[in-house]
Amino acid sequence: MIQSTPPIVDEETFRRYSGISLPRHVSYPMPTWWSDATEADAEEMRRATERRDQPLDRSLYVHIPFCQALCKFCACCRVILRKTQPGAEERKNVYLDALIAEIRHLGTQPGADRPLRQIHWGGGTPTYLEIDDITRLVTATHEAFTVADDAEVSIEVDPRVTTVEQLSLLRTLGFNRVSLGVQDFDPQVQEHVKRIQPYEMVRDMVAACRELGFVSVNFDLIYGLPYQTIETIRDTLGRCMTLAPDRVAYYHYAQIPEKIATQVAIHHHMMPDSQTKLQMFLLGVQMFGEAGYDFIGLDHFARPDEMLAAAAREGTLQRNFQGMTTGADLDLLGVGASSISHLSQIGFLQNVREPNTFVEHMDTAGSAIHRRKPFTFDDCVRQAVISQIYCGARIVPAVIEARYDIDFAAYFERELGIMRDLERDGLVTVESGNNVQLTFPLGRVLMRNVAAVFDAYLDPEAYRTGEQHCFSVNA
């Protein structure tokens, strides 16, 4: 088989910029800079959403934390609860009761009459829930909110525990998208990270999803795990192509055992080095491109006719805690342990992280709000610029100026000066009107360095010289 060459990145420049710990900007400002909150704070922020000139429709994120087994790389908010454990059924039901109570509470808040245009169940493992649990949760959502007829309704699926019966019920209840946690197809990698799911298992689940009529089947893949090599990644990507997922999130593994205790058991000495990880990423760019996928944002790929690719073309793409998603013009409501609400132009609200604490708060206070970040004007302006970088690999000052009534060149005089530095290093090109375009592939590979220039909460030199440890296990 003839194999074309992946894109080439200048290795010296890559080394200078890539050794810096920078945020992934799934939110701006990052959770590091949020503060404690009360339900009164949350209520005031929710009421502010209805005082806007044009109140927005809604998106709902539902967090199911339970998993049957531990994956060693996982940084998600999850609880390992084997169904055979004493008390497992009761613990699940108590959490589900609290989750439904929060949904009902939000259904009485300002703006609850505005339709839900997106619903996403994440985890954890949402299909840990039994058939009756799933039906009960969907029913509660429809009783509390108006769900649009054409809503995008998605769920994260673990092929190891999900049954065709569950998939059939989900389809009947209106779910139209599934996201499969694949991660890697290599047996040695799977064994080490404790995520054993043979190719045939994933193949059969994809076939079942297609037969049931799910309009989009998405994969999550991870590169940079122990025992991965260029050849094993090439094989994983090739197997991925044979199953033709509609979207793929191709994530870089972040080893931060000081934040994620389970990663201590990872064989870090068997992880590929930074240059090999770069080649793994570029190989993915090459192979997905050759297979006809559009390269979206920092680490996503989608078929040209898929909604994510369409959103990228139409400018309605966004980057949030779910990765790259459609619906930039929606308020996001989060329910469940650790979940985050993003109220556009208003701020972030986050629930307590631990599921047991979430249940206690819902029982005693009727709310589990724990942290918040009201947006300043500057937050909103910079959020819009950073979103342009991650979602479009560019900065278009005219759009920012029209939206916020600012002189972009004056407002970002320092940052535009740095763009000239980055241009000399080959990360960006600065065009007329101060339009900035990230280069391919170097600028796309170092996208976080470009975005860091506009992050007012970081050291001004963080994008190239500093050590900024802004990681959060919630983000």
Radius of gyration, rounded? 22 Å
Q: What class do helices, strands and sheet pairing give?
A: alpha/beta
- What is the name of the CATH topology of the largest domain? pyruvate-formate lyase- activating enzyme
Number of strands: 20
Average residue-wise pLDDT: 92
Could you name the CATH homologous superfamily of the largest domain? Answer: tm_1862 like domain
- The percent of residues in helical segments reads 25-40%
- In this structure, how is the largest beta sheet organized? 9 strands, mixed
Describe this structure in words.
It is built from 17 helices and 20 strands. Strands 10-11-9-8-7-6-5-2-14 form a 9-stranded mixed beta sheet, with helices on both faces. The chain has a 4-stranded antiparallel beta sheet with strand order 1-17-16-15, with helices on one face. The chain has a 3-stranded antiparallel beta sheet with strand order 18-20-19. Helix 3 crosses helix 11. It is of the alpha/beta class and 475 residues long. The radius of gyration is 22 Å and the shape is globular. The protein is 39% helix and 20% strand. It folds into 2 domains: 121 residues, Arc Repressor Mutant, subunit A (Orthogonal Bundle); 345 residues, tm_1862 like domain (pyruvate-formate lyase- activating enzyme). A hairpin with a 3-residue loop joins strand 15 and strand 16.
